[in-house]
Amino acid sequence: MSVRPSRSQHWPLVKISLIALMCTSGLALPGAAQSARVDRGTTHNCSDLKSQKIASAQVGLPTRGAVIQSARLAKGAAGGYCRILGSIISVDAIADPIRFEVNLPETWNEKAVQFGGGGFNGYLRQSDGRRATVLGDKKQLSPLDRGYATFGSDSGHHHHYLFLPDIANATSARFGLNEEERKNFASDALKKTHDVAVALMQSRYGSRPARVYFIGGSTGGREAMKVVDRWPNDYDGVLAAYAAWNQIEVDLQFIRITQAMYTKGKNGQSGWLPPAKTKLLRLAVMNVCDALDGLKDSIISNPAGCHFNPAALRCKDGKDRKGCLSDGQERTVLAFAAPQITTFSVENGMNNEPGYNVLCGADLVGNMGWFRHPFRPAIPFFNSIYYVFGDGVVRSFLSSGPQQSLFNIEPNRGSVVGHDPMEYLPRVREQSMEDDASLADLSPFQQHGGKLLLVHGVADATIPTNASVLLYQRIVSAMGQERADTFLRLYLIPGLGHGQGVFNAGFDTVGVLDRWADEGVAPANLIAIDQNKSANRTRPMCVWPAWPQYTGADASSASSYICVQTQ
Questions:
Q1: Closest CA to 85 of 65, 103, 97
Q2: Residue 214 in 3-state DSSP?
Q3: Domain coordinates in residue numbering, the chain
Q4: What is the DSSP string of 500-549?
Q5: Residue 194 CA to its chain's centroid (Å)
Q6: Tens digits of per-residue pLDDT, 53-86?
Q7: Which of 57, 269, 474, 544 has the fewest beta carbons under 10 Å from its own?
């Protein structure tokens, strides 16, 4: 395994191995709900927690303990809560601490929700319990206001930008040069934050939570699958939305697409897709496939039934002209649609990532960046998100320093042009082992009684929709359909992209998980609300492989659709 140099001037991580605090009360029967019962001990006021220190022995991975920076009472929509901010101290003295937030409601339902991050993380999200979850119905009370203790972290790295908000950290991978920060981002910070949060609940309420749920999307979705893989007994219900679970293959896919996109050339050979061309592609696909589900509404409900050939948009002479695609632009579109396939395998035998639904509804308009020039290093917004994230991975995860160029990577071989393949392939595999959440046999989680929801938008152009289908199929193949049905559901939502879209779906995320895990009530007939401004419409959430077909009457009502499996 290669050793990366530490980075003394950037931001720090943490590495850990400790004692798990969360325990189950009683033995869990596979697939069965347990009564949530906890024993009460000594309690403390919110202000008392400010002076509390969490010892390293209370955390299940190596740390130097945790300190509380602030603990104060705050007011939510449905009552007061204790808002706690603190840091988990790194083992590596030059690694950043893990900054965390824990919110403890005055009226506690003895349950907790952990929130995942996004992008490269590096900031505390306002959604760490004080707002709706990923894909949550914003018209409902937040988990915190419903009595759940909530918590999350920045995953163990952070940089102060002079004029930019903290969320700018989500696009920077520089922390990857520090081993502890890198491993905290991969998943270690999840366990460390969980254990510290549980210790604070124990101190505040005199008991640990009877149920703990995890909800995240994108990177947070990968994190959701990581906690299922690594700490199955710590969680009772998990929602993984548009999850980047197959992370290294996604990174290599970003690299391959970037290379096609920024190909330079004359006479139509340039691969750059300006906004006018991405809109052209989307409109052409909609013209062919929009009405196939029974309703013309800019939503393709059954992507498997949509067949569009980008050759229909080719400029006659292959050159870049208005209203058509040049040869280079057509190649870029096909690069998006094609799966990423490597000549080697990474963690758990993975060697591929599905292509994007660009030929059946995925919208590239917001992902391409403002300029056709690939700045080095990549600049957020100026360059495409595929280049921004791919470049960051190459410079800080796969290279020993920031000097390596994404354009020298051979994404199908995991190597660098002009270098011995074995110089970089071990780094690719090492990164897969750290980041990927590709375990297919989830028996420990299922036997614990855990429940898992996979949700993905059909129009996602950041993480391919069929990545969630692939994950679901791998789990079913490993465990069998009958066992999988006891704890697993997959929902694909038409019109939803990467967290937003033409149909900006929201549903009762926490409630669905809680009823299934705590009461044994499996999800049935779920309804998603479109949270776009003035949308005022609903659709059924169909269990994959079913999709919602319009039957007539009120197009804005979920009752006017039926879930069908015909192609």
A1: 103
A2: strand
A3: 1-165, 249-435
A4: -BSS-EEB-HHHHHHHHHHH-----S-EEEE-STT---EEE-PBTT-EEE
A5: 18
A6: 899 999 999 999 999 999 999 998 888 999 999 9
A7: 57
